[in-house]
Amino acid sequence: MSKVHNLYVAKRLLSEENEYGVKTAKFEKPKLYNFLYMPSTSQVDFQIYGEQVEKMYVAYVSYAKYRNIFHRGDRAYLLDDEMQDLSVALTDINCENANYEIRSVSEQNIYIKILFVRI
Predict the structure, then answer these.
(1) What is the CB-side half-sphere exposure of residue 18 using CA atoms within 13 A?
(2) Which distant-in-sequence residues (6+ apart) come within 8 Å of 109 by Cβ?
(3) What is the DSSP letter of 28?
(4) Cβ–Cβ under 8 Å, residues 10 and 98
(5) Is the pLDDT of residue 69 over 90?
(6) Is the Cβ–Cβ distance between 95 and 75 less than 8 Å?
(7) Is 64 helix (H, G, I), strand (E, B) or coil?
(8) What residue ranges in 23-84 does DSSP mark as E strands?
(9) Residue 95: left (phi > 0), alpha (psi -120 to 50), or beta?
(10) Contact assessment for residue 59 and residue 36, using Cβ atoms and an 8 Å cutoff
(11) Whole-angstrom distance, CA of residue 119 vs CA of residue 43
């Protein structure tokens, strides 16, 4: 039986250019969400991303509830083999310790498919 998990997601703001001309992304404070995510086992994802799919999680969330909330490039804190405590998200500055990034957000009729990739 599957269970829902807590995770934090920080929205990416516009990139800023520093004094050396390098663009750096800025992020909002991470927000807590609670839904099911699981390792990606999709053949379609494997065909698109290849072996990188082994580092990916996928979530299907309600379209009505989460429409326009998640975007490509947002950072996430997910529980996995390396991160066992999400409290780091509460004190992390500019998401430096986030362990996943949203690779794609596919809106469908009833659900939104969110693909998280390990960074």
Answers:
(1) 6
(2) 63
(3) P
(4) yes
(5) yes
(6) yes
(7) helix
(8) 23-24, 31-35, 37-39, 56-62, 75-77
(9) left
(10) yes
(11) 22
pLDDT confidence band for 1 (50 / 70 / 90) = very low
Distance set, CA 88 to CA 62, 65, 83, 99 (Å): 27, 26, 9, 11
**Rounded to an integer, what distance in angstroms lies between the CA atom of residue 1 and that of residue 109?**
25
Q: 118, 55 in Cβ contact below 8 A? A: yes
Cα–Cα distance for residue pair 119/109, rounded to 1 Å: 29
Instruction: Collect contacts of 87-96 with beta carbons under 8 A, ≥24 apart.
Output: 89/8, 89/10, 89/30, 90/30, 92/30, 94/26, 94/27, 95/10, 95/27, 95/30
Global pTM value: 0.84
